[in-house]
Write a structure and sequence with these properties.
Blueprint (H helix, E strand, L loop, with lengths): L1 H38 L3 H13 L4 H17 L6 H13 L6 H16 L4 H20 L4 H15 L5 H7 L5 H11 L6 E9 L10 E4 L5 E3 L5 E8 L3 E6 L6 E5 L6 E8 L4 E6 L12 E6 L2 E8 L5 E7 L6 E6 L6 E6 L1
Length: 347
């Protein structure tokens, strides 16, 4: 009976040790595979492998290291909407509030919001800028190294634009990613190498200039506005075919293809905008009561054109920017307290 007891305990200990070793091996295996993907600049695959490594981490140090690299990998992937990176960094900050990596994480989180701010307007842009400023301040409060502190100061300069110190903006011209480079170049009024510029005029159907029209490259940056004569100049476009998005109040948002010229500048481009159409309506519940605060989306040819309006206290909305020459639009109302409502294509 005594030998049976000893054998049983020994068996349990062996199983426990094997289990621990298995988890440690899995963590190292996934982590090393992820590092290999990083070296090949396959960042999305790396992020997924780092997430797997985090799931097998046996201690907080390994888990936070893996989670940090999840966010960095998604950030380096370079997408204009870095939701996955933001999710990973915010998860890190909630779980590891006192981590030594807190400064680095806030720095990258701020950069994610800078990237999103560059592709937004109005209140949405202001919210992203505020989030970026807050993240950079948190990075500085985390007692960062001198190197990280310098990088944070540079990104704060990018946010401040023309009012920032010139030497910091010139440092941003050498950044690894396009967004800070282009914003800094616009603030300094310089042309980046391996880019071209477009100049021209925006007019209405009567040939009259349209002032304060926004012209932006695909992805949101770079961008420019027309002057009182409808003239614009858009600099630092990458040397490839580019979609220009042209939008002005009261007109249909228009997409135009631009081809890079051999001379480095495409001049005298003229873009004509059509007057917009609008749709007004009302959102109600099953009892006929108005629903306030519903987001109104509309789609054209299956492509979402984003939130165009939010219903008022009477449930009313106004969708603008619609093309009167387009026959079919699809409308969707979204509210957190109600199921999605979808209106099929209407003519």
């Amino acid at each position: 009976m005594r030998w049976k007891f000893i054998i049983t305990i020994t068996f349990i200990v062996i199983i426990a040790i094997n289990s621990v070793n298995s988890f440690a091996d899995e963590f190292l295996q996934y982590f090393e595979m992820a590092q290999e993907q990083i070296s090949q600049k396959r960042y999305e695959q790396a992020a997924e492998l780092f997430e797997a490594a985090a799931a097998f981490a046996e201690n907080p140090d390994d888990e936070q290291t893996a989670l940090y690299w999840v966010g960095v990998s998604y950030f380096k992937e370079g997408r204009s909407e870095p939701e996955n990176a933001i999710r990973a960094f915010e998860q890190f900050l909630v779980k590891f509030k006192d981590s030594e990596l807190k400064g680095e994480v806030n720095y990258y989180l701020g950069r994610c919001h800078v990237r999103r701010a560059a592709r937004r307007d109005g209140e949405e842009k202001a919210l992203e800028v505020t989030a970026a400023r807050q993240a950079f301040e948190e990075a500085l409060n985390a007692r960062p190294s001198e190197t990280l502190k310098k990088r944070v100061r540079m990104m704060q300069a990018v946010l401040n634009g023309e009012s920032a110190p010139e030497e910091l903006l010139r440092e941003a011209l050498e950044d690894e990613f396009r967004t800070p480079r282009i914003i800094a170049a616009q603030a300094l009024g310089v042309q980046l190498p391996d880019t071209y510029q477009i100049s021209g005029r925006i007019i209405d159907s009567q040939g009259q200039p349209i002032p304060n029209t926004k012209i932006r490259g695909w992805g949101g940056i770079p961008y420019a506005h027309t002057d009182a004569n409808g003239q614009f100049k858009l600099s630092n476009l990458a040397l490839r075919q580019t979609w220009l998005i042209v939008s002005a109040k009261g007109f249909v948002t228009t997409k135009v293809v631009a081809e890079p010229p051999e001379s480095g500048e495409l001049s005298d481009m003229e873009i004509q905008l059509r007057s917009e159409a609008a749709v007004v309506g009302r959102v109600i519940d099953e009892q006929g009561n108005p629903i306030k605060g519903a987001n109104m989306f509309y789609f054209a040819d299956g492509e979402s054109l984003g939130v165009n309006d939010i219903t008022d206290i009477d449930g009313r909305y106004r969708l603008t920017g619609l093309d009167p020459q387009r026959l079919n639009y699809e409308i969707m109302a979204d509210h957190p307290d109600y199921a999605h409502e979808y209106q099929p294509p209407s003519k």
